[in-house]
Amino acid sequence: MSTFSSKSGVNVRRLVQNIQDQYDFAPQIATLLELVANALDARATRINLTYDAENARVIVEDDGHGMNETQFKNYHDFAASSKRRGTGIGFAGQGAKLALNFCTHVVTETSSQDWRGYSDWHLKGDDAPYRVVEHELPSLDHHGTKVILYLGHESKHFYSRKLIQRWMFEHFYPLIDRGIRKQYPEIIARYANGVTLLLDNKPLLESALENKLAHFQEMTVRVSRETKAFGWFGVYTGADDPPIPPGIMLCTYGKVIERSYFKKEPRDKEQIFGWIEAPYLIEAVTTDKGRFIKGNPRWETFFRRAQNEFTLWLEKNKLIERAPRKSTAQFATAEREINSILRSMPELSMFASHARQDAAVIGPGQDLVASGDRLPPKLVSAEQEDDAPTPGEAAPPSQEKHNALLSTLGEAMTGEIRPRVIRGGVHISEEARDDKSEESWFDGTTVVVNLAHPAYRKAAQSNNLNYHLFKCVCLSVIEFTMENQQQEPNWRQVLDLQRKFFALWGERL
User: Fold this and answer.
1) Contact 505, 345 (CB under 8 A)
2) Is there a domain that residue 39 lies in?
3) What is the mean pLDDT of the chain?
4) Domain shared by 16 and 134, yes or no
């Protein structure tokens, strides 16, 4: 046995606060999520969370491959990490660093093939001294890692078993749902041996959500002829309350990164649930693994493909009004003028540009297999979507889709695919939605004007509908742009874009 002590040599208190500010929720929650995510990255098959209220402790123990000597050193280093973006759903040492905010001290035990030891870490003033004991473990008797959080006075009242279970359900539900968890060993190699989350040594398991869904439909996302994501949509019909928040869970390796409706506004959206597993999007996830990086080409490619699948499902089940294929006469003039304005604004010109789109045509001795009606446009990115399934194309059986994820090429189309140039630009439609407070919303292609909004009724009565229409389009497009840029938007950007749009509009009178 050997022992040594060390400290960071930097202002740890400030750094810990900066780490905490990255998250949208309390550090007590973020800590557990990071510890579970790191256990999954360590190929754990069993992750047990223990809430010890009597001794004011929370323990996270896994049976993963543990840390070697270098990794354990980096674990305590605020300037180092053994992980790079895109290699895992956790961030090494992040959970323990966050825990320094609210714990009296943190004890970490780890055992790997070539090293074992433990550390005792705490915050003291602006520093974080720790003591490492090598070749000895107080309680861990297998390969893996065990982190013991000794809670401070306030934090010992923060936790409860009910809250811990809720966080695990909300952020790792695919690993808890009996239906979904059976599929992970088939679609992700690192989960070939399965994985179980436990709370106080009792498995966290929930009956398959898909069995309580109406209009259930599986879906896949293919990029460059490879299946990159797999999932399903449905409408909840269970008699009891759903176990998780509504929306489509967008996941990487079983961790829920975001919940989304893909910019659509279906009726009864609180009853719509879904799951999409997309491991390849790990490279498009923010450091805190709390959302995807808007503007990232990989994410944008996935979003448009999944949005198209989701829209078709909504329309098929009459959960949203079918979007008009061509502009109605009442909007044709306004659309031309609006897109002309957008083409004069470099910041928004992407919405008014032409796009290249594959269309299936009749070749020698071949059948017509598709039109350009519903095929999504190709994106200018590193990943060209050249394998879009045609309307009516038969999907492979469920089991085959599972086995095909991330490896099998898509089925070839029987027609000759030729690129054609289609007219892009923003389209306008209208819908009476008295259940929504928004004047309008934009899904990336169409601005939907809410006929039930008081501002619309006022504009109609005062004969100002044209101005109201332009205002709705302007603000909806700007909002969409701000949400999808990588840097943090500010109010001046929004105001400047609005001023420029209406200045160009005024010049056209």
Assistant:
1) no
2) yes
3) 82
4) yes
